[in-house]
Design brief:
The protein is of the alpha+beta class and 408 residues long. The protein contains 12 helices and 21 strands.
Length: 408
């Protein structure tokens, strides 16, 4: 990989996180060059340590990783999700989502560090990708003829298409004046890595409490066979600071109170972190020679684990659109191509966001009556194979109009 100053590429990707880097690699597999600009230091993002930050990769997203060639580097670190158990406060009436053997798993869990390592290594080895790490953007420019940015060191980069992949607080989106609907759930997700006595058997648990979901996600065992899970615990905003300050012993006592002894004794807890939970969805995902992908376009509650997968669907759709456009002589920023991307991804991501928001509100209703209604509904789904299959297809990401890169 070489650093090119003042030279254009096909794509100018602002944001080198999981979604932005995946876009660069997927585009390179189709012959597109890109500049990837990011403020972060890759060395810090890939530092050793298990802190619980992890992502569920759906079947469709795994197909994408296979099709762009990074699956072999990830496979040794995958923890399959063989089933999902959904319960209201561990009371009777839970749902068990377990696919038939011929349908494979419901996804794979990875520590975010492993995903970043595989993506960074693939990007660094790809001659069509130029990475600009620890880089500040001082100016963005777009017009009918092209796009460019100026970096803090004076470097100028240009491309026919600018892609905003900077996450929820995207300055490129805001600078473009793209409006968004958003609200705050007044909750925070507390993230931590747990080690425990009993194996998780590759079951992902979603336990709903009035304050929010308490999720236990199956991670790969350590080399010494220590069992690990990632915890995503939703708490009220006013309780978050106090929960984070608990001693390890007190924190584990609170965790055990909510999960019981399903994993035996919880033997340790990793570093804890948290982030505020909110919803946002942009009015549009394109502008003049600009496309939004990932959290720059849509931010959803982690209740269904679909945030990253939604961004990877954006990647597949955008690459397919610009590749087909090139075949008829259109450059990646052509307005016709961006309109097709808008039409393809705008409605799908909006429907997923609305469904996730609805689930959040449904399971957040307090009181014994609401709990009883939820458990009756879940018991009904448990006895309805057609409904369960539909939910599992949604979890695997294999429903709807899938981009080619996300197909097996």
């Amino acid at each position: 990989m070489t650093v090119v100053t003042g030279k254009g590429a096909d794509l100018l990707i602002l944001g080198g996180g999981l979604v932005g880097t995946t876009l660069a690699i997927a585009a390179a597999r189709k012959g597109f060059t890109s500049h990837v600009v990011d403020r972060a230091d890759p060395a810090e993002l890939t530092a050793e340590g298990f802190d619980g930050r992890a992502s569920a990769i759906s079947t469709a997203s795994w197909n994408l990783f296979e099709n762009i060639g990074i699956a072999p580097a990830l496979e040794p670190f995958a923890s399959p999700i063989s089933s999902i158990a959904v319960t209201d406060q561990m009371k009777p009436g839970r749902i068990d989502f377990q696919p038939a053997p011929e349908d494979g798993t419901l996804g794979r869990m990875f520590a975010n560090r492993r995903l970043r390592l595989a993506l960074f290594e693939a990007a660094e080895a790809e001659p069509l990708i130029t990475l600009h790490s620890k880089a500040e953007i001082t100016e963005r420019r777009r017009d009918d003829y092209g796009t460019s940015v100026t970096l803090g060191d004076g470097t100028e980069l240009s491309a026919p298409l600018m892609v905003a992949a900077e996450g929820r607080g995207s300055p490129t989106r805001d600078e473009a004046g793209i409006s968004l609907a958003k609200w705050d759930y007044s909750h925070r997700a507390i993230i931590a890595g747990l080690t425990h006595e009993k194996p998780h058997d590759h079951v992902a648990w979603e336990i709903f409490y009035p304050a929010g979901p308490f999720a236990l996600l199956p991670m790969q065992d350590d080399p010494d066979s220590t069992h690990r899970s990632a915890l995503v615990w939703t708490v009220d905003e006013k309780d978050a600071a106090g929960t984070l300050k608990l001693s390890d012993r007190a924190f584990l006592a609170e965790v055990t109170k909510r999960m019981g002894d399903m994993f035996g004794a919880i033997t340790s807890v990793g570093a804890r972190s948290s982030y505020p939970l909110g919803f946002h969805h942009t009015a549009k995902i394109t502008d003049t020679r600009l496309a939004l992908i990932g959290d720059a376009a849509h931010g959803i509650h982690p209740i269904a684990g679909q945030g990253l997968n939604l961004g990877l669907r954006d990647v597949g759709a955008l690459v397919e659109v610009i590749a087909e456009g090139r075949s008829i002589g259109l450059d990646p920023g052509d307005a016709q191509l961006l309109k097709r991307y808008e039409n393809w991804r705008g409605l799908d991501s909006f429907m997923v966001a609305l469904a996730t928001d609805g689930l959040t509100r449904l399971f957040g209703m307090g009181g014994p009556a609401a709990s009883a209604v939820r458990r009756i509904g879940m018991a009904g789904v448990q006895r309805a194979p057609v409904l369960k299959d539909w939910f599992m297809d949604e979890a695997r990401g294999v429903s709807g109009d899938l981009p080619e890169l996300l197909r097996a």
